[in-house]
Amino acid sequence: MKFLNNIRGGYADGQADAERQTPAAQPSSDLTYGDVFLVPSRSEVTSRFDVDLATDDGTGATIPIVVSNMTAVAGRRMAETVARRGGIAIIPQDIPLSEVTKTIARVKQADPIIETPVIVAPTETVGTTMQLLGKRAHGAAVVVDGDAASRSGKPIGIVTEADCTGADRFAQVQTVMKDQFLTVDAADLDLKSPEFSKTFDAVAAERFPLAVVVKNGELAGVISPKSLVRASVYKPALDGEGRLRIGAAVGINGDVAARAKALVDAGVDVLVVDTAHGHQAKMISALQAIREVVPRDIPIVAGNVVTADGVRDLVAAGADILKVGVGPGAMCTTRMMTAVGRPQFSAVLECSQAARALGKHVWADGGVRHPRDVALALAAGASQVMIGSWFAGTYESPGDLHDDGGRLYKESFGMASARAVAARTKGSGTAFDRARKALYEEGISTGKMYLDPKRPGVEDLLDEITSGLRSACTYAGAHNLEEFADRAIVGIQSAAGYAEGAPLHVSWRG
Predict the structure, then answer these.
(1) Could you tell me which of 363, 385, 388 has the C-alpha nearest to residue 374?
(2) For the chain, percent of residues with pLDDT exceeding 90
(3) How many other CB atoms are found less than 10 A from the CB of residue 264?
(4) pLDDT in tens, 390-438
(5) Which of 10, 186, 323, 432 is the most buried (most CB within 10 A)?
(6) pLDDT for 160-200, tens place per residue?
(7) Residue 1: pLDDT over 80
């Protein structure tokens, strides 16, 4: 990455075009994403689809997106959906080990192409079905004649929100379901098969919101025209056995080595050792203990840090990837409570340079509000970008849908908030100890994350993010993320410069 000298209008080293590869000195002030912009360069990249978004940090991700280990964001549905499109979700440390083990197993059992449906029995009530419809972006549930709890049986109907509207909420769903629906054989969903495009044409031509996928007459999942297109654009994040990838977090208290080993035994692909202030002795000792029991082929992520010294100390203790960011998250109050933190772009830039010098990587954790921010984090040298609250307002996040005057939302909360701390310390120590800890919080306990009507599912947001990122790479003339980080030219802008780039949805002339 190179800096542009805004005053002279040339490159920061002031040299000729042929010498533009020389990196410039870093600015004297720390910068965040809104302070900088990318300059277009000559490009030989002819199409956005020619850009490879796979990361090189050993996690197996094919897009550089990580779902943050937040209780209100990362669950089974989120992990499965994001991995199918190439990203990785990190299950939070607050979840009981038994439940994390179940989540890992369910994600590993999920199909890389066929989507997991919402399944109900014909005797299920309309009210319960309506609640379940909000758990996925499909917009429909499949009614089976078998045991819906075991997720098996022969499909006998589909039901949508429109079918349920106006019906008695205690009525059985079989009274409102459609018994005519399109079915697709699982064998016709091979991307390499010539039948794949025919399957898309058949599904797209129907009036149903999705097609029911069957295998030997039994329900195998669902598919929609959009998901078929996505299957041809994205490459799922798969482990060595062809199963979807998933990560999990551990804290730095208690028997962290035992929990880490249990997660590895359960099949986790990435392990995150997580605490708000990662550059501390307790993190280092936890990392050393975990490194002794975790195989080298499983990346260990540790953080959070914002300095090169923090990177070097955690790498020495056993970290492969460093989580970078203190205070930039939407649910975090650390900077306002403590004045501690660092503007995220500069933090990522310094930490990524230190990590690369040691053959390691960083994840940019927090502070992204737009696709541009993801591109800037990667230009600064991050191998992946962690996203939390942005994904909380989607169908796939763990929370229930709420209605605020016609606007749907889900609740989100910070992992250092009183709410999260109470959940994390429940059952540990005395009631007095827990009450003392509850006095101190650095996060919002309840925040409304509204669903975007145009992009209500996490896949919709991934489309938006990766589309912007692919375009940024073409502007930089980069075929992949390594070239992007090398070729990106970054300039510093004023607040007016940032505002100039924002679209205006309403006339500004009164």
Answers:
(1) 385
(2) 63
(3) 17
(4) 999 999 998 888 888 888 888 876 655 555 555 655 666 677 776 776 6
(5) 323
(6) 888 998 999 999 999 999 988 888 888 888 777 766 777 77
(7) yes
Q: Tokens 């020389």 label which residue?
A: 22
Cβ(322)–Cβ(357) below 8 Å: no
Are residues 229 and 82 located together in one domain of the fold? no
Q: Does 332 participate in catalysis according to the annotation?
A: yes
- The sign one gets for the Cα dihedral 215, 220, 224, 228 is negative
**pTM summary value:** 0.87
Query: Please, what is the average pLDDT of the chain?
Result: 87
- Cα separation of 400 and 308, whole Å? 40
DSSP states of 390-432: HHHSSTTSSSPPEEETTEEEEEE--TTSHHHHHHHHTTSS-HH
Classify the C-alpha dihedral 22-23-25-28 as positive or negative: positive
Q: By C-alpha distance, which of 124, 104, 54 is closest to 378?
A: 54
Catalytic residue, chosen from 164, 332, 351, 473, is 332
Element (H, E) at 378: helix 371-379
Q: Is residue 387 part of a domain?
A: yes
Structure tokens at 313: 């100390």
Last residue of a domain, one of 185, 211, 233: 233
Residue 287 CA to residue 296 CA, distance in Å, equals: 13
Could you list the residue range(s) of the whole structural domain that residue 369 is in? 60-111+237-395+453-499
Please determine, for residue 127, whether its predicted confidence score (pLDDT) is greater than 50: yes
What is the DSSP-derived secondary structure letter of residue 357?
Answer: H
Alpha carbon distance 365, 126 (integer Å): 40
Query: What pLDDT, on the 0 to 100 scale, is given for residue 15?
Result: 40
Show the CA angle centred on residue 330, arms to residues 382 and 308, nearest 5°: 35
| Pair 169, 241 in one domain | no
Can you give the length of the chain in residues? 510
Residue 200 confidence (pLDDT): 77
Residue 369: pLDDT over 80? yes
Q: Tens of pLDDT along 449-485? A: 888 889 999 999 999 999 999 999 999 999 999 999 9
Within 8 A by CB and 6+ apart from 179, the residues are 156, 157
pLDDT band, residue 348 (cuts 50/70/90):
very high
Assigned token pair, 449: 């994350």
Residue 32 located in a structural domain = no
Structure-block tokens of residue 95:
């979840």
Q: Return the H-helix or E-strand segment holding 250.
A: strand 247-250
In a domain, residue 27? The reply is no
Say if residue 94 is in the same domain as residue 173: no
- For tokens 């940090």, the residue is 57
